Amino acid sequence: MTKLVLTYRMSHNWNVNSFLKEYQRLLQRAIDEISENTTWREKKVTHRYSVGSRNYHYYETTRLIPYFPQSNEFKRELRNKLLKDWPFAKHYIDSAIKTAYSILKSWRGNYLKGKRKRAKPVVKRKFVRVKTTLMKVEGSRIRITVKPREEYLELDFSKEWFYERVKDWKVGELIIRENDVLLTFSKEVEFSGRIKIGIDSNLTSLDIFHPEKGWIRVDLSELHRIAETYDRIIDGLKSVQRKAPKRIGVLLKKYWTRRRNRIEDYLNKLAVQLSREFPDAVFVFEDLNKFKMLQNGSRKFNRKLSRATWKKIVGKLSYRVPVEFVNPAYTSSTCPVCGSWLESRNGRVVCHNCGFEADRQFVGSFNVFVRGLGVALSGAELDDLLPNEPRGELNVMKPKSVVRVDLNGGRFTHVPP
Description:
Layout lengths: L1 E10 L5 H20 L2 E14 L2 E13 L4 H12 L7 H22 L15 E3 L4 E4 L2 E7 L3 E6 L6 H4 L3 E7 L3 E10 L5 E7 L3 E6 L3 E6 L1 H19 L5 H33 L3 E6 L3 H7 L2 H8 L3 H8 L5 E4 L16 E3 L2 E3 L6 E3 H14 L27 E4 L8 E3 L2
Helix pairs in contact: 1-3, 5-6, 6-9, 7-8
């Protein structure tokens, strides 16, 4: 069984501005207290900088590393401090402490990467994270406690567009914002011993979405380099074939054979290494029709597309692992948040309806994965949900790993993304 979590956005007309401001101040106080008790220790670390294509120079330096207080005693004292003058339900204190640690953990990761300074984070967004202990769920109706026995917020998602898709799912934690609320739903899905993974087939990569490992990009640039190199040689020979048709004909046959053999060797190793990397997975591919794609492209694009070997990859892989196909229509242009059309901009896609933005190939692989499950597409904007919070299977991430086919070994080689 694998747990799936989906997140949907629902508008509300509640007057919660003062509630949001108080929680914002509470959260900032929690961050301030944790920051004041953070210890900084010197540690030798290794850094690198690029000195050419895939070459790096490594050097050691000493850095100050932050370590947050984690003892139960500190957390109890922090909770008691935050409870003073807090006018709402006590469980929001626990929510704020957990959220503060999430924000600081994200800040620490960016600080170690050199993307943040030592200054503590400042809470700029107004929101309230609602734990399940503060909610009463009856079917599609949810009652949220603001002040026990005094003030409650109620909502009913039975008339929302996503109701039929999640009516049997378990309701998780909520995030209240000024004009809307983010609802999370979870469900255990049976994969019959195999996990399904979605694969978006592109000209120079296979982008894989794995529900546990995240986004993995298989770099196929070497495959296309092989094809382009031999195509260049073959095109040059064809241009002078009239001058010596017999001799050039022999050379053409020689280079066509080399091209075929090198590509076949690459594809065989790709299929072997994919099956070893994901031995218990069902591979879900788009049912692509290259002929229809050729009709709409330019001459240069059609030439690149003609080098794509998607069907051969699937054919060789199908001997080793289960393979399924889904409808490829709009997998890279459908918004997983609201279902609207996505506009493509330099490899990224943007939804003008809800503001969602992500890498086009990530969205494609995720949508293929979800279509393979037969589950509705969903997700939320990255900045709307905090690190380590329930955000569903759609995590707008950079590739967790980029791998290349190892032409001398039996496993993928991992390379910097």
